[in-house]
């Protein structure tokens, strides 16, 4: 078998921010054998490797040296469990939103609040995608992966994934060291709507179907969030900051309307969108980038900009929040960073 490598491949349409980017070489392995072949090739040639999914939470530089691999494993299937439980196996390149809608349409509960989140299944555990009171970690049962250094396949249980708010081991100890090939999710045939977030309950009837909840979530997201197919963006550009209780207390005294959410560990989560909004930056535009006019947490790309310009723009937004509130915002999308894979020492 020989891989179909593309040279100087244009990735501008493969990242939802629409940043201009070319890969020195690009391949989209369609099966596990092809994936393995691509990883072997990278090791043999000593090329830097960049893994790409749906490109919805990624900031791409203008040039990616070596090889960019975007797995194209697109199967998903169900496995009946006990007590109304259904195990969902979804390969890395299954489009997350399409899977969510297909599961909701089958009356399976668990992922409906996560409708319309862009991206592929393989990337979902990296930032532990979350919305409307649900996180991927609430439904994940296992993550199948391949270690890049020695090709070893492994299955991680959720406890081994160190899931946190927009965080996991795939952003930490395993960053750049594994390729995620499949997720296993645990859904339920027994209705269990979670409607506690915002005005979700007001959007559906008393006992909604999973599909009705998913459609309500889609409607809310469409009202607030820009469609990446129309206006480049990567969803929330900053995480909601977790601050010490005494700082949160001082801020609430000074700004009684400030949204704040005490956490089990004693810290308090603040709404980054509110903080940016209060700085008067909603709708602010400079050069090719702007703060979205309906959700200040989302930075948008009007076209013609670069990753460096975006990072500079984001820095200015974060500086304003730090100066006004003394709160530091952390970036949410990851920077694509090509890594060299060295064979494991035996
Ligand atoms: N707010 C403002 N102005 C704004 C934006 C928000 O005042 O411009 C206020 C809202 O009124 C609300 C609070 O901030 O009181 C929180 O806003 P919202 O409910 O819109 O949620 P968020 O905290 O801004 C998070 C996630 C979103 C997710 C929503 C719904 C993060 C970083 N973002 O946003 O996730 O869809 O909750 O669950 O946690 C994403 O990660 O890309 C994303 C869109």
From TrEMBL:
Primary location: cytoplasm
Compartments in which it is found: Cytoplasm
Gene Ontology MF: a single term: UDP-N-acetylmuramate dehydrogenase activity
Cofactor: FAD
Active site feature: 166, 236, 332
UniProt keywords, alphabetically: Cell cycle, Cell division, Cell shape, Cell wall biogenesis/degradation, Cytoplasm, FAD, Flavoprotein, NADP, Oxidoreductase, Peptidoglycan synthesis
Family, as annotated: Belongs to the MurB family.
Protein name: UDP-N-acetylenolpyruvoylglucosamine reductase
Lineage per the UniProt record: Bacteria, Pseudomonadati, Pseudomonadota, Gammaproteobacteria, Oceanospirillales
Gene behind the chain: murB
């Amino acid at each position: 078998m020989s891989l179909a490598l593309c040279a100087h491949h244009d990735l501008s349409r493969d990242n939802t921010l629409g940043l201009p980017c070319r890969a020195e070489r690009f391949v989209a392995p369609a099966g596990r054998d092809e994936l393995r072949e691509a990883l072997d090739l990278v090791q043999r040639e000593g090329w830097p490797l960049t893994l790409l999914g749906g490109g919805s939470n990624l900031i791409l530089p203008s040039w990616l040296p070596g090889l960019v691999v975007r797995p194209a494993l697109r199967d998903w299937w169900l496995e009946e469990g006990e007590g109304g439980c259904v195990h969902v196996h979804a390969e890395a390149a299954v489009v997350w939103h399409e899977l969510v809608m297909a599961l909701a349409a089958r009356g399976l509960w668990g992922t409906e609040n996560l409708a319309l989140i862009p991206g592929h299944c393989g990337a979902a555990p990296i930032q532990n995608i979350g919305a409307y009171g649900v996180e991927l970690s609430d439904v994940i049962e296992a993550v199948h992966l391949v270690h890049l250094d020695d090709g070893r396949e492994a299955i991680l249980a959720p406890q081994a994934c160190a899931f946190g708010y927009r965080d996991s081991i795939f952003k930490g100890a395993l960053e750049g060291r594994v390729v995620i090939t499949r997720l296993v999710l645990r859904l339920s045939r027994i209705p269990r709507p979670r409607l506690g977030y915002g005005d979700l309950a007001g959007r559906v009837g008393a006992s909604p179907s999973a599909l009705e909840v998913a459609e309500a979530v889609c409607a809310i997201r469409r009202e607030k969030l820009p469609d990446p197919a129309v206006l480049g963006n990567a969803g929330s550009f900053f995480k909601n900051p977790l601050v010490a209780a005494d700082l949160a207390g001082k801020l609430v005294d000074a700004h009684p309307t400030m949204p704040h959410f005490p956490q089990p560990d004693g810290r308090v989560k603040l709404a980054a969108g509110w903080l940016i909004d209060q700085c008067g930056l909603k709708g602010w535009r400079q050069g090719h980038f702007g703060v979205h006019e309906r959700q200040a947490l989302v930075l948008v790309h009007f076209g013609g900009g670069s990753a460096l310009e975006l990072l500079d723009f984001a820095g200015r937004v974060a500086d304003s929040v730090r100066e006004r509130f003394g709160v530091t915002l952390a970036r949410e999308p990851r920077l694509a960073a090509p890594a060299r894979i060295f064979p494991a020492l035996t």
